Here is the input.
Amino acid sequence: MGKAPLIPQGAHGDKPREDSYVQASQRGAKA
Here is the structure.
């Protein structure tokens, strides 16, 4: 956390799980 709320998938490549979590959160899906 502590990063931009909107992060394109594979932007960092370090934490692909984090990107997926962010997208899921935006959709309101439980992660």
